[in-house]
Records
---
Amino acid sequence: MSVETLPTAPDGRPQARPNPLYDPATGAARPERPGPVPDPDVFCGWAGQTVRDLDPTTEADPVGILVNLLSAAGAAIGPGPFLWIGNDRHPALIWALTVGATAAGRKGAATNTVKRLLAATVPDFTAANARSGLSSGEGLIEAVRDGDGDKDPGITDKRLWVVESEYGVTMARGRREGSSLSGILRQAWNGEDLGVMNREALSATAPHIAVIGHISPRELRAKMQDAEMAGGTYNRFLPVFVHRNLLLPDAAGAPDELIDNLATAWRTVLADARRIGEVQLSPEAAQLWRDEVYPALCGDEADDGPLAEFTARAAPYAKRAAMVYALTDHTDRIHEHHLRAAWALVRYGRASAAHILGALADGTGDPDLDKLAAAVKAAAPGGLSGDDVYRLFKRRNAAYRADLTARLCELPGFAAAQVPGDGRHRTVYLFAPPE
């Protein structure tokens, strides 16, 4: 599948391009966009109309608002609607990593725009079921736990919309020795019953959990590890590059009247969607899926490396997103325009991953060498030390690590250097982009 790439300047760096999205009535300036641009098809139906209505009131990226809206809507709708993909039952759950620069990404602005609308639409859900603070698998199960007779009535409403504004912290917690967080998250994405076998014997039957994470590109690149991607934690998330979309120095937010009007419509949307069970494709959408979408998204055996791992669930995500688009349009049928919108959103996710991962997307074909190269590129200006290399590959022997670093130094731009240490010189590994 082709991935949109940015034009390059004479020095080889990607050039920014104008943002072609909406021209709000305010006439506010739109910054140039340094990454991929979503196809306008993603702003489909009632969800797209909501984003268009809110767009002039916030600096947030419209596509960031959109994925937050689809995720929150799926969580609030609950576990009733589903679709079959083979023998797998998929709920209306959208998990997304919104990835943008700390200052210019406006990740929080996108989430807070949707939170404000959600609070006006379903205040009880927002108060009780919109949470943050993922710290352990046991903690997540606790939030949607089953009852234990008279001792603990448990949680009746198993819907949860989790927003993690510092997803890098969550990633670090999931890597701790003995942590069950990554495994429990994978189960939750699947809509499976949750449980851990320990003295507490925690369990949660039929949970319905959606997750939104915020992270910067640099932090994501630095924290990703091949083992975690291969385990499938990250590819449960749709990666979405976001960037400040407007410059609004005197922004006052959306008028109360606009929020109230949208909330009135959304209450009906969510109530209607909760009554739906199985969702199916219309004949036209089914034909589009067979002829174009599935062949483009299912990949082939030649696909390998971090980009392929990060986007391995592109095909099921296309159907999941199409289902949420359909549900928010008051229908239990995925029509062609819903599937095209979802397909465009998944393509944007893949283009986002390629942009975010940068050189990792191309790779060398050797996962360990790619991992080392990425760590050196993400290291501080002082370089990556030999001790850092040991910590990255401590399960490998010294001869393997020596061969790996030697092969790294054969790649363009990478080099080893000797720097003064405590009484002796030490080796660090550096990267400088080739001229």
---
Amino acid sequence: MTAAFPFVGGRVTLNFVSTLGKRSTEKLERLRTPEDLAHWVELAGLGSISTDEADLKAARVLREALYTLTMATLNRGPLRRADVNLVNEWAARETPAPALAIGRTQVRATPLRRRDPQPTASEVLAALARDGIELLSGPDAGSIRECEDPGCTLLFVDTSRSHRRRWCSMNSCGARAKMRTLRSTQ
């Protein structure tokens, strides 16, 4: 059975990092099989790929490097040269080119589109590494947050007007926190 994938990060890199959840407690691995990886790629809108055990292993290693670098960006972990080198190596690989698509009211970018409708797993991982570089070195780096729910470790880009967003999702962690607060006052 495939685990549910959260897509609350606001960036594909943070959604990818969230394929390992509850990092501070029981570590919920959502990429258990190559098929899980292929399913996540499709749900993320990155195309349809074929994967094998080597792709799964590579994806997990890249995911953890991106997570460690994100936590270092938040001053909550060490900055390791090996992680920087790994992400840079992946980002240097070939990726499908982004393209424009017509949305309901505007033109929008669609990642990883090209004439060949089926990118390789390596191309998808390269694109994830590039997005991670753009995120961690760009203007959104200062807006990355970790959910304040003690059992949740999902990361997200805070795009709220006040930049005071606390929860990965008000429908899950935010609602639970409000219920805890309500119960503690009764």
---
Amino acid sequence: MKQKSILLVDDEVVILNSLSRELNVTHPNFEVHVANSGKEAIDRINSQTFDLVVTDLFMPGVDGFQVLKSVKLKDPQTMVIILTGYADLQSSIDALRLGADDFLQKPCDIDELLYRISNCFVKQDLQRKVQFYETILPVCSYCKKIRDDNQGSPGNGIWYELEEYLHHVHKVNVSHGCCPACYAQMKKELQNHLDQDRQPEEKPRS
């Protein structure tokens, strides 16, 4: 697994330092950052990029809900695990509705946290892979038709001519013209053809 950046957020310094130390020792490929308040966390989120944010839910001032909202607003693919010392089912539901990717009650076992972190990174890598392939437009190397996978299973969509694709998929009407490069090439070919027609025919030898 490539190096992943993690932001730990908790107003209890003892818990914050303990989690940071455990993650650094057990996973040297984790780049661990800390914030001991929701406000500090949001400031760091706005100035840096993280793969995962692990945040306490109930903190004075800016709470974990606000941290969660800030994370997902900046990048929905940043994973968020909510930690709370309160066995509050409604808080769990509210956090999940806001986009939290997992929820753990404090004090949490480090092995369990590592397991949840691993699951989040697997999910994140899949999301990023899907997003990457969604930015690729399948074009036939020979006939230049375009495949629309939105009208069929992935890899088995309908193949369209360029004009058909623009019309059916993007609802764009196409007008035909000639770009300067093609016009110059056509003009050159036409001139060559005219020059060949003007050449005198050879008289047969007697």
